[in-house]
Amino acid sequence: MAGVIEPYLAALRRDLAFDPELARRMTDEVEAHLWDAAEADPTWPSSEAERHAVERFGLAREIAAQFATDAVHRQARRTWIALLATLAVTFLAMRLRVMWLSDSGDGLSGLAPLIDRYAFIASMAVATIGWFIFRRSLLPLALCLGALAASIAAGIVRAGLFAGGAPTHVLLAAAGEIALSGLLLFHVVGLGRSLRRTALLRRPG
Amino acid sequence: MLKGHLDAIVLAALESGPAHGYAIIEAIKTRSGGTFVLPEGTIYPALHRLEQGGLLSSTWTTPASGRRRRVYALTRNGAARLADGRKAWSRFAKAVESSLEGGRAWPA
Prior knowledge:
The complex is a heterodimer of chains A (205) and B (108).
Chain A: H1 5-15, H2 20-40, H3 47-57, H4 60-100, H5 107-133, H6 138-159, H7 168-202
Chain B: H1 6-13, E1 19-20, H2 21-31, H3 43-52, E2 56-61, E3 69-74, H4 76-101
Antiparallel strand pairs in B: 1-3, 2-3
């Protein structure tokens, strides 16, 4: 019977491919563990001893799924931090617009202050509910991102950024909220990818 | 049930000194009198998580026998977390024992 440790390590490396550095490190570490376990087996030296060591270690896919779950938790934490930062800067930018810009206007310009304010309030509400109930779910974060994008877009219209009429600090705050919402989008996409990967690893078969 | 306490059990296994993954698993088996027999691979995500949380540190070592291994050690934060975990577990265990025995209320 052929050795089973090498094929097991190859399977572990493949299942951990989402994080190449972790895959390399774990393969080296697990290899030492499996040879130690095989050598301690009463049937050593034999392929039976290798098989026992691999069986006691557990399925490569399940171990990779545990690593993937931890990665989801870390990514969710990063995404929530990005969301809090985006909310804080969007709030600041909104307050600056309230203080420095006139709320009067027609058509879209008249609607913009309302969208700016209420989309932000909606994102705050969704973030609060999401934090307490769905902390590791993508939905509240995606909804917050959508509401913040609406608020920021309305803010841009309101500040007349394209007309170049707003004071510098209002423009800087708007640039900050745009940059942070880009960072938030990056993290939301990363969390989605991380959740999909974990689901695939946890799927039977 | 064991899963919820795995991190504390791993920290406790490292209290007596640095060790590699296989030695940690063996220490857990020995300390629990053979009661805790978990799939050995489950220790590695826990070790990785504890290291990322700053509760463990690790380095590669190559002993005279020649096999390269990653050795884990408790950090100061890890030792503090273990002490907190012990206190919390002791309170919980006393409360459960009191409840199951149906004797005098705890604390007496």
